[in-house]
Amino acid sequence: MTETAELVDNQFLRQFELKVENEMAIIEYSLQERKIFLTKLIIPDTIRTREFELEFVDMVFSNIKERNISVVPTSPEIAKFVRGNRKYKRMLPVGIRI
Predict the structure, then answer these.
(1) Across-strand partners of 30?
(2) pLDDT tens-digit map of 24-35
């Protein structure tokens, strides 16, 4: 479902956006120094599947990893994603455990 969709970092609204099937999936964030706080995950019910959610969050983490900044997941869904993906635990700031 996300193969042809393009992830957009809308810096004005401070959110990552992924448009699929005329619907918009969003992860809101707050950027402070060299940390990005992922605060809210919004996926419309019409496109929400576990697979889509995992792909979307993975796309966002890959984007953040390219920028070489730390991630602080404050959204419960995103924290759960980090717990299930060891490769992204290295992106947490020192002293933060999920």
Answers:
(1) 37
(2) 999 999 999 899
Encode pLDDT of 44-91 as tens digits. Answer: 999 999 999 999 999 999 999 999 999 999 999 999 999 988 888 889
Number of neighbouring beta carbons within 10 Å of residue 15: 19
Structure tokens at 44: 């419309």
Answer yes or no: are the C-beta atoms of 68 and 36 closer than 8 Å.
Answer: no
Token duo for residue 30: 């707050």
Task: Write the CB contacts of 15 (distance below 8 Å, at least 6 apart in sequence).
Answer: 26, 27, 28, 29
Q: Amino acid letter at 38?
A: L
Helix (H) or strand (E) holding 86: helix 86-89
Q: Please give the model's pTM, rounded to 2 decimal places.
A: 0.90
